[in-house]
Amino acid sequence: MNPYLLGFLAPFVVSLLFRNTKNGKKRGVRVDVGGEPGYAIRNYRYTSPVETAWEGISTLAELFEQACNWHKDRPSLGTRKLISKEMEVTKDGRSFEKLHLGNYEWFSYGEIFEAVCSFSSGLVQLGHDGGERVAIFADTQAEWFIAMQGCFRRNITIVTIYSSLGEEALCHSLNETEVTTVICGCKELKKLIERSGQLDTVKRVIYIGEDEIHSDVSLAERSTSWTVSSFAEVKRVGRENPVDADLPVSADIAVIMYTSGSTGLPKGVMMTHGNVLATISAVMTIVPNLAHTDVYLAYLPLAHILELAAENAMVAVGCSIGYGSPLTITDTSNKIKMGTKGDTSVLRPTLMAAVPAILDRVRDGVRKKVDAKGGLSKTLFDLAYSRRLLAINGSWFGAWGLEKILWDFLVFRKVRAVLGGRIRFLLSGGAPLSGDTQRFINICLGAPIGQGYGLTETCAGGAFSEYDDSSVGRVGAPLSCSFVKLIDWPEGGYLITDSPMPRGEIVIGGPNVTLGYFKNEEKTKEVYKVDERGMRWFYSGDIGQFHPDGCLEIIDRKKDIVKLQHGEYVSLGKVEAALIVSPYVDNIMMHADPFHSYCVALVVASHDAVEEWGLTNGIKYIDFTDLCQKKETLKEVHGSLIKAAKAARLEKFEMPAKIKLLPNPWTPESGLVTAAFKLKRETIRKEFSEELSKLYAS
């Protein structure tokens, strides 16, 4: 053979052989467990669930103190300097707040430890008793983390509440846990004042913020019996009057986390220090080369276990954590003033956690820019993407080696700049990530996406895909802190004896499985069980299947399955995941009725995509709401959904027969989705009951 040809082919052959080796890798293996019979898998590297990764460390307070001692002079928590706020008025008269933000200002680990100790002492001076609970009701920021660790140093249980939680759920959470001290942000203080008459046990409020909320502070002091203090004031008092720590033990409850819940009032999940530490210890094994040189962007809700566990894991190894927000994350984010850089451009993180909704938006934003440029730019992007896709799929003609470097330089370098250009690992959780988005982000960012599966009840621990697993649509093997078991669900037709893969309800066991629901013994007994060997299991209600290599795939959910008039079963979540890839869809909720033989869908329109289609096709309309009601628009969007359904090989009865196109997005603030952007089905059904009735009647 020609030696030049051999030299050219060598990288492709090596890559192909390497991929075949990886594809044959056993990532999870069978394990004998107690309790209900099922098909159980453990992580291939660990024979028993991991409880801690650090000798002598059994609580989050000990882990934090150790990190501060080890990394005393390194940058710890960073916040961007606010230069100015401005109101921008659009052509249609709507006003939007825009922020001019500067660089990150950093505190060292030593300084953060001092702040935590001061805040902890300040709580005591304020009169907060060790047996009372503290609620944190604020957006993600450095003060949130400091407050949490300050409480842990006094063995105070914190109650976490989403800043977007509705009035009824907020009052229920605070009253049920008998919270006496609330730590809140500026806008949350207003919510508390408005509902002060409904809060039975609150005595003290600590607000995060400065001069701009003096009027609200005065109102709170006049209209309530609360003691109102600023965060800075509590730290100052504590610094001047230090109090010794009262550290917790592993079995003490660290957090009562109120899920935003897709149905009904939220439930408070009781997490011990040992529960959360087990998940953090497992995270150490899945992020490659996690070290103090990494920079993490924190912007997801700290009231969500995904973010809380992630930030504690980052601190454990001395990473720098820069705080941002979903509204300022990129240069084109809604709250970023024109000409001002977004959080990722300034911070240039190496690690990020994300929920699928945010990754979907990144994908759609990149595609929109590429399509808008057209010409040579679009041709190059499409070619580069197809070559990388061939490589990942194991083709001989894929873009490996020098060709990969070329495409990265010519095409994907610009895409990576959207998230700062240095991302080396992305963690996705909170909801299923579509295979299309996972592959797109992976190729464009050139970094692996670790897709995880877990629940609040398991401290986010369950399963996680490894960095060298190039497959999509799966959530990997069990984490090192967990065993994952499938049990039969005969009613839904899922059995562990199914071929080619065992299927069933997912049950998770291990030290990360929480104690249960606060003051809800009945529900706790329903979904938590301890087997004869002492292992605690949580019954998730999700349906999964195990691949031959021991990796888990989520394929259904018990609550999402509806039986149609003629006996066909429709998995609403599965259909939604298939249809949301349509470029016209920002969000979608399928609806099935047992008294009808077909499904319908509520579709939140992607403003840019639908409007662009309308302009391109000469559709005359008054405003976006009017455009969404046009017959031509409905036909176009419905056709796109059917195309996506066919591509996903859905059955005809699974495809939406009729749709309602909605102009306004579903946000956590609207109460229609959770903080992790999961659908609140019952809330949406009630909100749009009239529209749904019309779809079935027409």
Automatic annotation (TrEMBL):
Superkingdom classification of source: Eukaryota
> Carries keyword Nucleotide-binding?
yes
A single GO molecular function, which one? ATP binding
Instruction: Kindly give the Pfam families that the UniProt entry links to this protein.
Output: AMP-binding
UniProt GO cellular component terms: endoplasmic reticulum; membrane
Q: Where's the AMP-dependent synthetase/ligase domain?
A: 101-518
> Which InterPro entries does this UniProt record tie to the protein?
AMP-binding_CS, AMP-dep_synth/lig_dom, ANL_N_sf
Family affiliation: Belongs to the ATP-dependent AMP-binding enzyme family.
**PANTHER family recorded for this chain?**
ACYL-COA SYNTHETASE LONG-CHAIN, ISOFORM J (PTHR43272:SF83), LONG-CHAIN-FATTY-ACID--COA LIGASE (PTHR43272)
Record protein name field:
AMP-dependent synthetase/ligase domain-containing protein
